[in-house]
Specification:
35% of the residues are buried. This protein is α+β, with helices and mostly antiparallel strands. The chain has two domains: 107 residues, Phosphorylase Kinase, domain 1; 136 residues, no CATH class. Helices cover 28% and strands 21% of the residues.
């Protein structure tokens, strides 16, 4: 199946929960999404297609002090729509459905990631070429270490995506890699807050100028903002949508990646 077919299956297929992922702070379930069975089964013929998906029900969201209750699943969907509007293929196809086993929630296509990592820990003199140090740290025995991330085009785009989405939790484990070199961001429930919440491990791009391709994608989003804002209004309030527009305008005006704020903590915890 191609991307549109998988998205259609997520939107219309039958969802069966396989189990819960226990290392998630909110209820997160692995599910199988199946196409409807044919009216006349044909055992020897092709079987209805299926995909695996991550299901995050609103009913399983832990209350937070700085995000309205029951909104994280909608923010997952809004982040996917932002990625579609930018045309960057950084977020797996995601839908928001009301007819799921544990109630309304987001359903995102499962990614079978490889072992590539974009964020890692090194000795200060051992940071490889093509990596940028972000955090000074130390080992349990007090030896100095640094946390660094790769510097490449797809990671730059993910950093820009997070700026517009105001991602409050871009830790290293939320960056995955699919076979073929695709960089994918996951866990976008803590996005689109009206207040500045950006907490990311990708601050190594701070101050770098936008490339022509990056600038063109942001300008295209700006030009279609009214239509995009209409989409977001299904899950976000006016203040959140207007704040996203202001962040987009700020990046375009400055023409570069912003620097970390000095008035608040700007790293996710834990960073990896």
């Amino acid at each position: 199946m191609d991307g549109p077919e998988k998205l259609e299956l997520l939107a219309d297929g039958t969802v069966t929960v396989l189990g819960r992922l226990l290392d998630s702070s909110n209820a997160t379930m692995l599910a199988v999404v199946s196409a409807p069975e044919p009216l006349e089964p044909t055992p020897s013929g092709p079987q209805p297609p299926t995909v695996q998906a991550i299901y995050k029900p609103v009913s399983g969201e832990r209350p937070l002090a700085d995000f309205p209750p029951g909104t994280l699943a909608g923010r997952e969907w809004a982040a996917y729509r932002l990625d579609v509007a930018l045309g960057w293929d950084l977020v797996q196809p995601t839908v928001l459905r009301t007819d799921l086993p544990a109630g309304t929630g987001s359903l995102q296509l499962w990614l079978e990631a490889d072992e590539t990592t974009s964020v890692d820990v090194f000795e200060p003199t051992g940071v490889p070429d093509g990596w940028e140090p972000v955090i000074q740290a130390e080992s349990e025995d007090g030896a100095p270490l640094v946390v660094a991330h790769r510097v490449d085009d797809r990671l730059r785009r993910l950093a820009l995506f997070d700026i517009i989405a105001n991602n409050a939790d871009r830790k290293g484990s939320h960056i995955l890699h699919a076979p073929g070199g695709r960089t994918i961001g996951i866990d976008h429930g803590l996005t689109f807050n009206a207040d500045e919440k950006l907490r990311t491990i990708l601050w190594g791009f701070a101050g770098l100028p936008l490339s022509a391709d990056e600038s063109d994608a942001l300008k295209h989003l700006d030009a279609q903002w009214d239509a995009f804002a209409g989409e977001l209004s299904a899950v976000l309030d006016d203040d959140e949508i207007n704040a996203a527009r202001a962040r987009l305008a700020g990046v375009l005006s400055e023409g570069c990646f912003p620097a970390p704020p000095t008035s608040r903590y700007a790293l996710p915890w834990p960073p990896l």
